[in-house]
Amino acid sequence: MRQIITLIINTNSFQLANTNFWGHSDADMVEVGNPGLSLAESRSHFTLWAAMKSPLLIGTPLDTISPNFAAIVLNKLLLAFNQDEVFGEPATPYKWGTNPD
């Protein structure tokens, strides 16, 4: 799971310049609460998905998610940044490369 998330983050870094009001970079499902990620890894995963302005589609049954993992997906600051209509560009502190085409 960790390798897949890392691959998505690296691949997505090339698309972040195209993410704005008119389009978004779909990084795939949020895996917070599913097996394969620790609590700390889940925090990083959700934070990066929110910062990339990816749609936050939760891939975990919410009726069985633990309170610790639920707190991650209910983080008001991350949700506010991800859903901000005024500042639609993603954060890019981890930019891997550029693709000007």
UniProtKB/TrEMBL annotation:
GO biological process per UniProt: carbohydrate metabolic process
Transmembrane regions listed in the UniProt entry: none
Key word Hydrolase present: yes
Recorded superkingdom: Eukaryota
Catalysed reactions, semicolon-separated: Hydrolysis of terminal, non-reducing alpha-D-galactose residues in alpha-D-galactosides, including galactose oligosaccharides, galactomannans and galactolipids
Keywords, ordered alphabetically: Disulfide bond, Glycosidase, Hydrolase
Official protein name in the record: Alpha-galactosidase
PANTHER family in alphabetical order: ALPHA-GALACTOSIDASE B-RELATED, ALPHA-GALACTOSIDASE/ALPHA-N-ACETYLGALACTOSAMINIDASE
GO molecular function, one term: alpha-galactosidase activity
Stored SUPFAM superfamilies: (Trans)glycosidases
A Pfam match: Melibiase_2
